[in-house]
Amino acid sequence: MADPKEEKPGKYTVHQFAAATQGSADFDRSAAWVQAVSHGFHQNRRDEDYIRKTLAAYKADQRTLTGIYVNGDVPPHSLAADVPVATYATMRKPLNIGFGRQLEASLVTAVTVRGTHRRQGILRGMITADLEAAKDDGIAIAALTASEGSIYGRFGFGVATYERNITVDSGARFRLRGSMTGTVEVADPAVLLELAPQIFDRVQRATPGSIGRQEYYRLLASGSIGHDGKPDTAVRCALHYGADGAPDGYVSYRFKGWDTKPYTMEIVDLVAGSDAAYLDLWRFLGSIDLVDVLMWAEAPVHDPLAWAMEDPRCLVDSDVRDMLWLRILDVPAALSARQYAAADKLVLRVADALGHAHGTWELDSDGEPAATVRKVTAREADLELDVADLASIYLGAVSPVTLAAAGRVKELSPKAAFRAQQLFAVERPAHCLTHF
Ligand SMILES: CC(=O)SCCNC(=O)CCNC(=O)[C@H](O)C(C)(C)COP(=O)(O)OP(=O)(O)OC[C@H]1O[C@@H](n2cnc3c(N)ncnc32)[C@H](O)[C@@H]1OP(=O)(O)O
């Protein structure tokens, strides 16, 4: 990783290390790093139990942690020099890029810069070096979820999936068309420690935009760890069983308490391995007594639930927001990994301030599994766009036609944006259930 020291000689040192668990030599450094992340996101100071559990999960994910440390002495009484002034972490997980294909992605997370060191280029130093290193390591795509919409576009990241909050009236109006196709049983949430990753794997294989989940999710879904790091004993769970009798979906949920009116059940995690499991789990949720509304903060924007309801106005959404941001590092690798929905040949002129994707690329698909992508020099382009916009259209969730209307994508040949829309379409709407 490039060292911000290069820009400000002598000021900072970069350390990169694997998350260490209790008892190992690097534990204290990892623990100080976790505290720095909590500070950066205005969370509580973490106790030993939280740090131990968090680092064990980080180790399972094989996260690489980066800390930026001030060189030399720090003023008396201020945070010690071994607490990083900036943090950054990465891990590798598969991204479903449509038609069942998976592409290994570098997931960027836990980016913080202490307020007293901000706007001096520390983030820029960390992210540009990391993207370069990831590309050198053969990674074609990076991903993140952003705290603010204004930070990552300049580094070539574009919004590739969306999510929203939904509130569902589970009173007398709640009725879904059709009837249960499988069965739903209440279970001890602890079973999700084992079952959640297996069931999620079905979603990962079937859903464009899905990203392999980190260790934390099975702990969260099972109530083993709540947002404060303590076990969350309010968490309950139900399993869906398909025709073969095997669990193929689950929902974990928590009651918000008798002081919250209307009485509300909050979905902690809802993972359905089939369309039937999804609707059956909603039928179950809608049948829970003493509850007026169901709330889910990670609902898909294109949600079959609304279309399955006899009264679709039972569902009210709010806060539709960007979720997954992608950054294409290697155009030939990322584009040829995709399967395209149409036969066409399109030439894309891509601008990339960091250079990784810069150039004119010919995408040639016969609409069958294989597509070829090559760099061209002489040919005229059909579309001109920034690498961030290429990331936005990559999973079919953002239309190039919309981006052209916004003035972000330039059409250089007639209907080029529409042709791109047809090419990049995927078999079902992209949705990412994994926050990281
Ligand atoms: C993937 C994730 O983890 S998302 C979480 C991101 N972290 C947070 O939101 C925590 C609170 N914020 C922070 O810790 C910091 O302000 C950070 C990490 C967002 C930015 O770190 P800094 O070191 O100050 O950024 P840096 O100085 O490298 O800025 C690089 C560029 O981004 C711009 N920038 C940085 N932060 C922001 C922001 N919040 N909004 C808009 N622009 C920003 C800078 O102006 C600069 O622009 P330029 O290249 O045109 O001059």
Any chance you could write out the topology, listing elements then pairs?
Blueprint (H helix, E strand, L loop, with lengths): L11 E7 L8 H14 L7 H13 L3 E7 L15 E11 L5 E12 L8 H15 L4 E4 L13 E2 L2 E8 L13 E5 L4 H15 L9 H6 L13 E7 L5 E9 L8 E9 L2 H12 L6 E7 L4 H5 L6 E8 L2 E4 L2 H7 L5 E9 L7 E8 L4 E5 L7 E4 H8 L5 H6 L4 E2 L4 H9 L12
Parallel strand pairs: 4-5, 11-12, 15-18
Antiparallel strand pairs: 1-2, 2-3, 3-4, 5-14, 6-14, 7-12, 7-13, 8-9, 9-10, 10-11, 15-16, 16-17, 18-19
Helix pairs in contact: 1-2
The structure holds acetyl coenzyme *A.
Structural overview:
It is a single chain. The chain is of the alpha+beta class. It folds into three domains: 4-139, Gcn5-related N-acetyltransferase (GNAT) (Aminopeptidase, 3-Layer(aba) Sandwich), CATH 3.40.630; 163-321, Gcn5-related N-acetyltransferase (GNAT) (Aminopeptidase, 3-Layer(aba) Sandwich); 331-385 and 399-424, Nonspecific Lipid-transfer Protein, Chain A (2-Layer Sandwich), CATH 3.30.1050. The chain is 25% helix and 29% strand. It contains eleven helices and 19 strands. It has helices spanning 27-40, 48-60, 122-136, 192-206, 216-221, 275-286, 304-308, 331-337, 387-394, 400-405, 416-424, and strands at residues 12-18, 64-70, 86-96, 102-113, 141-144, 158-159, 162-169, 183-187, 235-241, 247-255, 264-272, 293-299, 315-322, 325-328, 343-351, 359-366, 371-375, 383-386, 410-411. The strands form three sheets. A seven-stranded mixed sheet has the order 1-2-3-4-5-14-6, sandwiched between helices. The model has no long low-confidence stretch (mean pLDDT 96). Acetyl coenzyme *A binds at residues 40-41, 108-113, 118-124, 144, 146-148, 150-151, 154. Pfam families: Acetyltransf_17 (PF17668), Acetyltransf_9 (PF13527), SCP2_2 (PF13530). Residues 231-328 form the Eis-like acetyltransferase domain. GO terms for molecular function: aminoglycoside N-acetyltransferase activity. Acetyl-CoA binds at residues 111-113, 119-124, 147-148.
